[in-house]
Specification:
By secondary structure, the protein is of the alpha/beta class. The protein is 38% helix and 13% strand. It has helices at residues 3-9, 36-43, 58-71, 82-93, 108-120, 133-139, 162-170, 226-238, 244-255, 257-275, 295-301, 317-326, 356-361, 378-389; strands spanning 75-79, 99-102, 124-127, 144-150, 176-179, 197-201, 215-219, 283-285, 309-313, 331-332, 342-344, 368-372. The strands form two sheets. A seven-stranded mixed β-sheet has the order 1-7-6-5-4-2-3, sandwiched between helices. It has a five-stranded mixed β-sheet with strand order 8-9-12-11-10. The protein is globular, with a radius of gyration of 21 Å. The N and C termini lie far apart (49 Å). 45% of the residues are buried. The structure holds pyridoxal-5'-phosphate (PLP). Pyridoxal-5'-phosphate binds next to helix 4.
Length: 390
């Protein structure tokens, strides 16, 4: 069955008491039992029924079931943000004395989580250029608990070779954890490329127009005990499970994901091509442009689709500020893959608390503006950019 069909027609795991056609929002903290034995069976995990909504809720489970059917994963857990998905995954894998191998090209909060928060608990971080396979091979060792990467880095747009990296680290029994937020999981199979655990900020494409924050841990079942640990330890002890109202919105967002993504990515491709014609723009960075250094690998890994994020470089930082201030249609906001087009100057915002040296080492340039392309008419987005550059 096609993924867009599954996203819409996935069945409830249990028939609703009133035969509701939409999954109801089960806004309840706890669940009642008929007798002591049934209660014990639920609490001890002998039957999979909800007992408390910190670890299971029917509305959230329906959203998880849809993602599981689409990705053919072994287990899917929905959390209350992308950062919750990433932090709970890394907390489940890491321990004192272990190391995480990753790149300096990371989402700002993920970088801080690994280099600051986890470091405080004695987890070592090893930063490596993930496009240099020899360096990757030399950096991992028997204490490496995982290699973490983003499938398309932001704002650099670097694309690592997932199959090649997984081949290297799997020989040493090291799992590959990938943040796939930038390309929807409906469009490519991360597991086929060697990814063991996929993490997603469903705040972005899935939520359906920035309705809510959410995160997904998509586990392909290659690591013994990982999902048990997420369910029996992380959800119970850290308490970051998704809430039912959010799951309702995200599930609805998922129903329209394929339809929205087709329009978003087509808008981004057309706009990237239009932007090449403007002399004030020194560089257009989009993997869908044929002369982009990561075009071929992105094309191969993600089945000819390149997402809806574009970065542009202007002459200097003042030009970036002036451009942002003059925008009339495009919104000055962070976030990605809203229905609205958004613009942000990453160096002074997302990476604003880093030092110049850190930003330079992360290839976050003062001349770069990040655009998240929305569903408006391409001509209207292009006109706004043109007038803001005058
Ligand atoms: C937004 C984002 C996150 C964090 O997700 P939240 O839902 O905001 O917590 C992590 N990784 C990437 C690549 C993102 O774009």
């Amino acid at each position: 069955m096609e993924k867009r069909t599954i996203a819409i027609d996935c069945k409830f795991s249990r028939r609703d008491a009133y035969d509701a056609l939409s999954m109801p929002i089960y806004h309840t903290a706890a669940y009642e039992f008929d007798n002591a034995a049934a209660m014990s069976d639920a609490f001890c995990g002998r039957v999979e029924v909800p007992d408390y909504s910190r670890v299971m809720n029917p509305t959230v489970k329906y959203f998880e079931d849809k993602v599981k059917a689409i990705t053919k994963a072994a287990n899917v857990v929905a959390l209350n943000s992308g950062m919750a998905a990433i932090s709970n995954t890394l907390l489940a894998l890491a321990s004192q004395g272990k190391n995480i191998v990753t790149s300096k090209h990371l989402f700002g909060n993920t970088y801080s989580l690994i280099t600051k928060s986890l470091a405080r608990f004695g987890v070592e971080v090893r930063l490596v250029d993930l496009t240099d396979l020899e360096a990757v091979e030399k950096t991992v060792d028997t204490n490496t608990c995982c290699l973490f990467l983003e499938i398309v880095t932001n704002p650099q747009m670097e694309v690592a070779d997932l199959q090649a990296i997984s081949n290297i680290i799997h020989k040493k029994n090291i799992p590959l954890v990938a943040d796939s937020t930038i390309i929807p999981f409906t469009r490519f199979s991360a597991h086929t490329l060697g990814v063991d655990i996929e993490v997603v900020s469903s705040t972005k494409y899935v939520s359906g127009g920035a309705t809510s924050l959410g995160g997904l841990i998509i586990d392909y079942g290659t690591l013994p005990e990982f999902s048990e640990r997420i369910k029996n330890e992380m959800l119970f002890n850290f308490g970051a499970y998704m809430t039912p109202h959010v799951a309702y919105m995200q599930s609805l967002g998922l129903e329209l994901l394929e339809t929205r993504y087709a329009a978003l990515s087509s808008n981004a491709q057309q706009l990237a091509e239009h932007l090449l014609t403007l002399s004030q723009i020194k560089r257009v960075n989009y993997n869908g442009l044929p002369d982009n250094p990561f075009h071929e690998i992105a094309k191969r890994q993600f089945n000819n689709t390149y997402g809806a994020m574009i970065t542009i470089d202007l002459a200097d930082e003042q030009s970036c500020y002036r451009f942002i201030d003059r925008l009339k249609l495009i919104r000055r906001a962070t976030n990605l893959f809203d229905n609205k087009t958004l613009a942000i100057h990453p160096a002074s915002t997302i990476f604003g608390s880093f030092t110049d040296d850190q930003r330079r080492s992360m290839d976050v340039l003062p001349t770069t503006i990040r655009l998240s392309i929305g569903l408006e008419a391409v001509e209207d987005i292009f006109d706004d950019i043109k007038q803001a550059l005058q």
